[in-house]
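Why show two proteins at once? Because comparison is the fastest way to build intuition. When a single record is shown, students tend to memorize it. When two are placed side by side, the eye starts asking what differs. So, the first record is below.
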Amino acid sequence: MKVNEGRLWGRLQCLGRIGADERGGVTRPGFGSAHAEALAQVATWAREAGLETGRDDTGNLIAVLPGRDPDAPLIALGSHLDSVPNGGRFDGALGVVAAVEVLQTLREHDVRPRRGLAALGFADEEGNTFGIGVMSAQLWIGEIPPDRYPTIVDGEGRSLEAYLRAFDVPGVPLVARPALAAYLELHVEQGPVLDDAGASAAAVEAIVGISRTTVTFNGQANHAGTTPMALRRDALWGGAELALAVRDLANASGERAVATVGVFEVTPGATNVIPGRTRLRIELRSPDEDRLATLRDEVEALVTTVARRNGLTAATEPWHHAPAVPMHPALLRATQDALVTAGLPERTMPSWAGHDAKVMARRLPVGMLFVPSKGGLSHTPDEDTDASHCAAGAQALLHAALRLADEATP
């Protein structure tokens, strides 16, 4: 039982033309006209495949292949239909189109598992309209209740409530959200690891946790020409030393962490003035919670040491922390075994970016599969993945979904 590679690829290309912009990319914000067109197109494919198709009251596509047990919660497959401005054709779209392909393949082969399967197309994952990432998944699990819809506004003051009231997709009826037993997501990696290794797919072991803080070093602004080097309290020296030390911490992690200093502000910012203040924004990511905690402690200790060594004072804001999300053991095993069943090597890796699965995991067992992004590129018109890799990922998704749909709830 094989997915149809040509059909999958053709649909991806068709979907990539919806919201195509003049810069060669895809601009398809959630709840906009291009999103409505994309939802209508995928719904058409789903209906033609004989699936029960509709959308919920927050703009998410739902297509269902019923199972033998009508009372059993469904196994959901999916991703998101929106894109970043001038983004690529595969981010999100692959997971939605592959979900429909899996359900259609099962129906064409007259395979009806015990549990039904649902293909989901989330409306707003990227968060560009309202500044809330993975918003539709939060709406799905009820973390953002309806009474908040009027208070969530875009840059022009238009509310989520207004967007939803205006969102209409003719021919795609409103339906209730089905009860779910688990969620599986196929996605492009959005990084270079699989492509660099020449691998076709991987099972995701965890979505990384993220810790962020701001560090400020205060020294003494002074004349750059008349102040001897030994008497300077140069805040930039502290910032530069910390930035390099943070890099070294990540390099020593054995590829289990990354660290970024994404903001580096120097005050007063004049060529002939010794910097009196430097502000850094630090981000740490790791799939291991214990490692993240250790890295935070090490950064805090470095701040103290660097400040003392350079005659500075320092302040660290409280850390913002989003914990790592390990995949459910049963779904991780299912995705690993699915790779082997699909004729691929068993391989696992972390996801270094967030996905709908990260939010769904707060209510359901989740699992993920990755396929390569050429050159590690994503969120760009140059985003690309081979048709064969898309098909391999969809084939593994089929095997994982079928296994879960015929087993007890994880």
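Second record. Ask yourself what differs from the first in the token line.
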Amino acid sequence: MKKNPVVPYLLIIAFGLGLIFFMSLNGIDKKEEAAKKAEDPKTEQTDGKTEAAEPDAEAITTAKCISCHGEGLKGSVGPTLHGTGLDAAGVEKILRDGQGGMPGGILSDDKEIAAVAKYIADLK
């Protein structure tokens, strides 16, 4: 008897479609939670109380800084941010006002600016 070479592919397709279906059901259950986070990503729910979350400086720099300062902030189009010799206040001033080719105002939230300034000032 000759085996049909199409059967394994059909099984893989059926398994993939079933997996997509069940994963989408899981996503439907979490839709409200995701919508709440999208409305206000800077707050966290803990025991029914809403608390302001501390900004994640590493995530912010990954999202906003690596396009110019490179992976790991070690320099690319812009200079390296490791060992700048600046304290957090100096970095904060650059983040607000800009310097050289870097425009100011990339970050507008004061807590984010302070967190990123401390993170960059601490890079060795």
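One difference worth noting in the second protein: The helical segments are 7-29, 31-39, 57-64, 66-69, 88-97, 110-122.
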